[in-house]
Amino acid sequence: MTSNPPADTPPTGNGGDSRSPRNIVLGVAGGIAAYKACHIVRGFTERGDSVRVVPTASALNFVGAATFEALSGHPVATDVFDRVDQVQHVRIGQEADLVVIAPATADLLARLAAGRADDLLTATCLVATCPVVVAPAMHTEMWNHPATRANVATLRDRGVTVLEPAHGRLTGADSGAGRLPEPEQIVALSLLRLAGIGLPQDLSGRRVLITAGGTRESVDPVRYLGNRSSGRQGFALAEVAVQRGADVTLIAGATDALPTPCGAEVIRISSARELADEVDARATDHDVIIMAAAVADYRPSVTAPSKLKKTSGSAPTSIELTENPDILAGLVDSRRSGRIGADTVIVGFAAETGDGEGSVLDHALRKIRRKGCDLLMCNDVGSGRVFGRTRNRGWLITPDGSATDVPDGTKLEVASRILDSVVRITAAR
Ligand code: CTP
């Protein structure tokens, strides 16, 4: 157990990730989402990684080789018979630290699952021993087809990370599951594998409810009382939980402009009471509830129906406050009373600053006893740490008072550690 958190690391130009540059092979298959691969190249090169793009021949129907060559600074080939003297598939595969394939079509998934080596990309994948991340994109029917499901299962069994696609607008007017996640999501999730963190399907069949972001308590139609929460940690939890197989509902308050976690059902709320109502309506349907939202403890006792005007003398010089319900404590009470399942895992967050009454950890230990949840993720938010940053660190506290260090990492990495603990608690029940 560490007594004091180390100083915060300033965010860097590479999205807050400070690892050394790596050799990334970006495979691109022939789907309309191939254009998004250009932004994925950028996402990696901007953090200093070297990217070698290996498209399939059909991918070049969507994006020209010149575009990939210009963006990556490397020549582009599709066939093992291009530059035979260099035995490209062997060299590219052996030198790769990470293979990312985005988009992957149903046909490419089938060829990978069958172990085919009929072009440079599939041959390279057979040579590569590094982590492989595959981001499928296709029509919903193709994604749901038993052949595709079987190919995905085969690849996952072999240790390949096959990302869940997003739900949304597809090629035509139709929409559903099968959309390629946003480039920044693919880059961030791929970097987990480079950090040695996998996305096992250990939450498969679990229903996970996550709250994120700050609440806004209206003073009048124009003003509100709010807080500095960006919602990033809660969104990262939703992102990782979906990719680990969970059915995720995300209730989001005020957040930064963040991409919607792929495959999660997202419900928007504004105030603490709206959040309490949505959590209450859904708590019984979920196996795990994670309260990452920054809930306002108080709201103005009265919300003015029209804008308070300084000139008319209606503006108050002080605001009377009423306490909001403690949603987390209420969930623990509901579990005690049997209203929600006895096995429901309840996780809280504690954003603390040390003061005269104790250190950050002292406050967190008191909080987990007071709230009665199964796990508490505690952050030190003193001196501008955490809020709005892409990285996080802290401790995971359990009711027996033990505190496990969560080392500095991206919010997806921290989310992975939190979910590891959730899986352990679930397995012990
Ligand atoms: N929380 C909640 N309902 C509230 C306030 C907080 O469910 N009305 C939840 C938060 O989502 C978080 C945990 O309780 O998971 C701790 O929130 P925090 O604001 O740190 O705790 P408070 O109980 O408000 O304690 P204090 O402000 O005194 O630190």
From TrEMBL:
Protein name per the record: Coenzyme A biosynthesis bifunctional protein CoaBC
UniProt keyword NAD, yes or no: no
Keyword Metal-binding: yes
Cofactor entry: Mg(2+); FMN
The protein's Enzyme Commission number: 4.1.1.36, 6.3.2.5
Role: Catalyzes two sequential steps in the biosynthesis of coenzyme A. In the first step cysteine is conjugated to 4'-phosphopantothenate to form 4-phosphopantothenoylcysteine. In the second step the latter compound is decarboxylated to form 4'-phosphopantotheine. Catalyzes two steps in the biosynthesis of coenzyme A. In the first step cysteine is conjugated to 4'-phosphopantothenate to form 4-phosphopantothenoylcysteine, in the latter compound is decarboxylated to form 4'-phosphopantotheine.
Species of origin: Corynebacterium meridianum
Signal peptide span: none
Domain Flavoprotein positions: 23-188
Record family assignment: In the N-terminal section; belongs to the HFCD (homo-oligomeric flavin containing Cys decarboxylase) superfamily. In the C-terminal section; belongs to the PPC synthetase family.
Any one of the GO BP annotations: coenzyme A biosynthetic process
